[in-house]
User: Fold these one by one.
Assistant:
Number 1:
Amino acid sequence: MKGLIPAAGKGTRMEPFTNAYPKELLPVGEKAVIHHAIEDMKEAGITDITIVVGWKQHAIIDYLGSGEELGVQLTYVVQDDRDGLAGAVKAGEHVIGDETFAVILGDNYVDDKRAMPDLVDFHQENGLEATIGAFCPDDVTSYGVIDGEDGIVNGLVEKPSEGEAPSDLAISGMYVFEPSIFDAIEKIGTGAGGEYQLTDAIDKMREDGEKVGYREIKGDRIDVGTPERLREANREYDLRD
């Protein structure tokens, strides 16, 4: 199994810090947040990892290098157009090929290293084409929300208004995919913000009859896209066992 980490966004909510370096290099504890994402992959036995870069790409490459010191092999792919998360995943298709692969967003911090191994096991044991890592945030209106039952996705709603969310389960930014996700991305148009939304591609897979599941991840998940969330991630890091 391979891994893919999207790390091409500018991170405008973290300006002025991200005017100088990408949000994926913001520190959680003594490591950049993307360093933690790579360790999550390693815990699942994934060491062949593609990093999709864009904004301030050389800073990420300088930090991570070849991956040898981290015990992984890294391949870098440039997403020339920042056209959404689905576009970032699609950018790695020629490297991933026809293999199953895991995805974790490069600005995500998960404090339990069992999360990715558990997600991979669930995907493989249930013969799924796509598996979404789910979590329960305080406010689901900022996330894609899962309409599902018994681990199977029946629908997805992107950033629903208050009172219209089908559940309290939000998309965490951790996934496992079969290569059929690439065909689904080809079929969708632009969605919210004029970007290609990964949520739309996953829902297209479901509509086409492919088996899409979800699994609530272990531990707390925080994206470091705002100063408040970066502080929260560092508090959680300090409280880890």
Number 2:
Amino acid sequence: MQALYVKTGCPFCAKVLVNAAALGITFEEKNIADPAVAEELIRRGGKRQVPYLVDGEVEMYESDAIIDYLQKKAAAVPA
């Protein structure tokens, strides 16, 4: 399952979540309000920035890049 690191109130996180929902994609949401999750994010990606997507070997920051990736992935899945 895909994981998305988020922060409550983050408009960029909300943007990713809204677009993902429209594509029928769900995530394990990891909120960096939890200090342990924030540290985990820093270990993975090197900085405390959200949203951050983890999908197998793919890991990325930036809401627009994440949305683009999800749209391309959804388009590649046969209906």
Number 3:
Amino acid sequence: MEAKLVGLGVEAFKIALYLSMPMLLAGLFAGLAISIFQATTQINEMTLSFVPKVILVIVVAILTMPWMMNMMIEFTTKIITMVPTFIF
């Protein structure tokens, strides 16, 4: 029983990583591109680096929402079906 709970915890961490990865990667690549742009043009404006990253992360979150919801629904369904195995 403890092994099932540990496995469930590991799977929860994996799901959290999978769900956050598209937005984190989008922010990373946007930040890299903006930093290169700022270095080449020598424009050091704070809003130039912050606003596009926020907008891109929001867009990626909206675009990946169906996939994220499916993953969360599958995981929740799995947890709910496992509940009877944890009751003595």
